[in-house]
Amino acid sequence: MDVTTGFFYLFSLALLFAAFRVITARNPVHAVLFLMLAFSQASALWLLLKAEFLAITLVLVYLGAVMVLFLFVVMMINLNMDGLRQGFWKHFPLAAVIGVVIALEMAYVLLGGFRTTTAVPSAPGAVEVSNTQALGYLLYTRYLYPLEIAAVILVVAMIAAIALTLRRRKDTKAIDPSEQVRVRAADRMTIVKVAPTRAAPPPAPAEPVETKA
User: Fold this and answer.
1) Same domain, yes or no, for 7 and 74?
2) CA dist., res. 106 & res. 100, Å (int)
3) N or C, where is the chain less crowded by C-beta within 10 Å?
4) Distance of alpha carbon 49 from alpha carbon 40, whole angstroms
5) Where in the sequence is the domain holding 22, given as residue range(s)?
6) Domain-embedded: residue 70
7) How far apart are CA 21 and CA 18, in angstroms?
8) What is the pLDDT at residue 83?
9) Distance (Å, whole) CA 103 – CA 110
């Protein structure tokens, strides 16, 4: 067994353990952390398959953005785990049947072996490029217009999300920036002239005190 095969079994065992702990962990924060571990091991497997672009995309998109967002959401909200576990045994038979079917399909694929195709010989004088460079060439040449359309759709979705979040609320005080720009000092502050010194008022006369004989 060579070094690559050893790393494959190591990452695979860690991935299976992390995936199992995702569905068995009682603490939702621990489940999210195990899911991040599973994604990291999957990216390591992509690296062993020489798919560097997919590996770094998995790390940046899922570990760097999606899973961190999930972790913050789970830590900020108060999850009622007792309510989430209600009805577990009710749906357990269906889930068990689906799991057995998936396990049988995976066993059939693994025991039957993978179909390998013969490598296409490169033309003489062709320059060897990495899969990342070849993928970028295809994206920005053959699939340029679909890529631009997808980018426009994502930008529109981002603007729509911001617009839905920044709706005017009645319980908050909103400030119009245009009014702040046009404001003048004379409208905000009034200068009142006050004498620097004032004479002290005369003392009030004392009232006579009545005495009883």
Assistant:
1) yes
2) 10
3) C
4) 15
5) 1-80
6) yes
7) 5
8) 63
9) 10
